[in-house]
Amino acid sequence: MASIIPSDDGHGGAAPVRRRAAPGLIWFPLACVLPLVVLMLGFFLWPLLGAIVNSFHPYGLAGIDSAHWTLVNYRTLLDSFYLGVLWRTVRISFLISLITAVLAYPVAWYATRLRPTAQAYLLILYVSPWLVNVAVKAFGWTVLLSPRGLINRSLMSLGLVDSPLPLMFNETGVVIGLVHAHFMFVLLPLWAALGGIDRNLLWAASGLGATGPAVFRSIVLPLTLPALLAGMIINFTINMAAFATPALLGGSRVQVVSTLAYRINLIDLNWPLGAAMALVLLAVTLALVLAAQRLGTARREASA
Amino acid sequence: MTGRHSRKMSRLLAALLGCVAAALVAPAAEAAGKTVYFLSWGGTIQTMLEKEGWADEFKKDTGYEVTLVPKATSAEIIATAIAQKDKPQVDVVMCDHPAWVQGLHQGIFAAVDQESVPNLADLYPIALIKEDGKTMGVYAYGDVVGILYQPEIFKKNKWAPPTGWKDLMRPEFKGKLIIPPVSNTFGLYTLIEFAKMGGGGIDNIDPGFAELKALAPNVLDWTTTFAKIGEFFESGAAAIAVFSAGTGLEFKKRGIPVAVAMPDPAYLSPTSIGVMKNAPDPEGARVFMNWLLSPKVLAYRANRFGQIAMNKKVELTGEAAELLPPASEMAKLAVIDYDAVLALRPAWNERFEKDVAPVK
Fold this sequence. Notes:
The complex is a heterodimer.
Chain A: H1 23-54, E1 59-60, E2 63-64, H2 72-77, H3 80-112, H4 116-131, H5 134-145, H6 150-157, H7 171-181, H8 184-196, H9 199-207, H10 212-241, H11 244-250, H12 257-267, H13 271-303
Helix pairs in contact in A: 1-13, 3-7, 3-8, 3-10, 5-11, 7-11, 8-10, 9-10, 10-13, 12-13
Chain B: H1 3-31, E1 35-41, H2 44-51, H3 54-62, E2 65-71, H4 74-83, E3 92-96, H5 97-105, E4 109-110, E5 128-131, E6 134-149, H6 151-156, E7 177-178, H7 185-197, H8 206-215, E8 219-221, H9 226-235, E9 240-244, H10 245-253, E10 259-261, E11 268-276, H11 282-292, H12 295-305, E12 308-309, H13 318-323, H14 327-330, H15 338-356
Parallel strand pairs in B: 1-2, 1-3, 7-8, 7-9
Antiparallel strand pairs in B: 3-11, 4-11, 5-6, 6-9, 6-10, 6-11, 6-12
Helix pairs in contact in B: 4-5, 7-8
């Protein structure tokens, strides 16, 4: 996962000088990491392995039949309904990342021009949605977006629309809610990368007659691309796994993989099918992330 | 990293380790007393035990302590119970019957008898859940499916108040109707009732789905929770909803203007309780189950939360006496064949999501 972290390409700083570290400085960080490693092994990797095993067992009314092995759960997922839900999840998640990227550029750009204190306040403002409980956020959006919400009532009393716009219980609601919720994951890396750009490059480019869009295309975008991709990848993976926002703003009409997995695991109790679904989600997400990273490195190598 | 930093970090690490150690030790210390672990809801059950003093009452009555393990939904309760069926950490499990029966089929419950749970003798016969002649658990109390509506909206639009299931199909409710999805207990009753109205039933569910699909464009949202329905009512977005009658009473108490119509037939939606097989404290588990089924506790739940007690000795007072069905009506409440439904339900849930939910 190391390459997800924004590289220092855009910063142009010199590589740090290697020094011999005191033994304490080697063991202490390792000791710090150990609890987390144990935690991850015990509470993430072990259940994940359990889920992989479960996904190959059949399920009946008496529970998981561990005596038999089957591919039936994966076959079920090939049904057009499940593939459709998976496709919708990927499509919405990508759309959200894309919208977030477009919206985050101006904000990040504006932030880098402010004084440091003002930058901090602005960023806190954009990070704050992440600090609010997700259910509270979704209810807040309901107040704004519902058929009788603030937006629709205002539009109707202004005579701009005759009947309420369908802003929630559909994909629109999910997209609005998640763009807001996960905005900072694109904004922060982008802000860091934009702050690292040498302004002389931009002046030089304009001095040589490049228009605004040309400067953005040939200088700003290439220099911030690694950070942008890193942010979008994190944003995308969180969108893929989001549960509460789709459940509350999408309603029961817009099923995504996480809401479907909830039904299968917790209402039908069909853990083998749920496990198969979780693994497919994991595989699809990982594949897309790896593809995006490859795209990023290819671009960088090509431009190097 | 400077020395000062490193010392600070070590202190932080020590504090963290201390917290972990404390967390590991705490439950062990607690288990030394005689404590019954009760897996159920965080809603009215938690209010009863923790806020309104009934856990203390239990201790006074029996000498045992009770610790509630709260979950949000019946599905989560039974999933938790099934997950620990090989090595249970809870003694008693209570949730909606359709979920509870999933646990029963996975063999997680132990049989109970009148010797250890004397209050079984006072329950309505309908309440005993039998398997091979043994009582595996009981309905503790129940609710009935109700049609909840907003009288003010009805008056304003000059609509006649709803009286039964057929009223849900009235075209004027377009965009103002709430029905829970089939995966929800009350959505399940709606599906089965619609199937019956169309000449089918549990064994021929097609007419039910046809009716739900036809009704889908009128449905504002297929809502699963009490809280969200309340919000829809409060904002005026919804005018009419299928949910439990008890929910209607709770809304009224919270100042949301709601009236409840009892459709005919009225379906009993039972809440079931059972003792975990290989429970850590099998004796305490039965003591708690007996206490919960006592007239004292069930009368409190009936009067406080509008729940229909399954103990014949419960006497209703005040509002509950007016609103809840009297003993003479108990036998008339419809109960669905949960065993038959259990096997079919996952397919129904999937069919609902494929065929009905996407319809706008």
